[in-house]
Specification:
The protein is an alpha/beta fold. It has one domain: Rossmann fold (3-Layer(aba) Sandwich), CATH 3.40.50. It has 6 helices and 13 strands. A hairpin with a 2-residue loop joins strand 9 and strand 10. Heterodimer of an alpha and a beta subunit.
């Protein structure tokens, strides 16, 4: 079985984003970047399936500028066999990403595509579903457990009423949730080995995909600061305060 894992380079989750002075977006200069945490879970799951003898090859793919090679090297150090970088200076929107991944998937012919359910920079939660629609493949979203079998793969996902298990025929798309696994830290020997693993480079134009944005960002601002709370002596005072604020009749 061959597994394709898309990974995205985002601002490290420990870093507080800064807004540009002209409010056109988030300032990425001199900011620590890392792999999207949900994509780390996807890479870890693919690596575990390979270690269990249920997968033969794991390929990581990323879309972005040349610096995204660092993210691919992280995936290679975690256990992937090779990488693919789709170079573009324009950060594509979810639909364009899905179209690019669809082209890569057609070329690579994997049995599974495992990706994070969303990226922490835009929280769109759209790419996996769009990719499944473009390919016409079965999909299991928000996976908390993945069990490959002879006739497909069982995916357990959390829903409002409990747990739901889907049996997917392969090829299939799976998006990962936080409870699926705990990603490993890449060891120094594996980091050194990752430097020798191959990374193929292509452009969005090579794949015939237009990455021109369909949306225009008008303004990006920080959320208002929360005001300090106020202690009240009793319920009557609380109700009076709520009425004064207009949140209670």
């Amino acid at each position: 079985m061959k597994i394709l894992v898309p990974v995205k380079r985002v601002i490290d989750y420990n870093v507080k984003p800064r807004i540009k002075g002209d409010q056109t977006g988030v300032d990425l200069s001199n900011v620590k970047m890392s792999m999207n945490p949900f994509d780390e879970i996807a890479v870890e799951e693919a690596a575990r399936l390979k270690e269990a003898g249920k997968a033969d090859e794991v390929v990581v793919v990323s879309i972005g500028e040349q610096k995204a090679q660092e993210t691919l090297r992280t995936g290679l150090a975690m256990g992937a066999d090779r990488g693919i970088l789709i170079v573009t200076e324009q950060m594509p929107e979810p639909l364009a990403v899905a179209k690019i991944l669809a082209k890569v998937t057609e070329e690579e012919s994997p049995d599974l595509v495992i990706l994070g359910k969303q990226a922490i920079d835009d929280d769109s939660n759209q790419t996996g579903q769009m990719l499944a629609a473009l390919l016409g493949w079965s999909q299991g979203t928000f996976a908390s457990k993945v069990e490959p079998g002879e006739e497909g793969v069982n995916v357990t996902r959390e829903i409002d009423g409990g747990l739901e298990t889907l049996k997917l025929t392969t090829p299939a798309i799976i998006t990962t949730d936080l409870r699926l696994n705990e990603p490993r830290y890449a060891s120094l020997p594996n980091i050194m080995k990752a430097k020798k693993k191959p990374i193929d480079e292509k452009t969005a134009a090579d794949l015939g995909v237009d990455v021109a944005p369909r949306l225009e960002t008008l303004k990006v601002t920080e959320p208002p600061k929360r005001e300090a709370g106020e202690m009240v002596p009793d319920v009557d005072t609380l109700v009076a305060k709520l009425k004064e604020m207009g949140v209670a009749a």
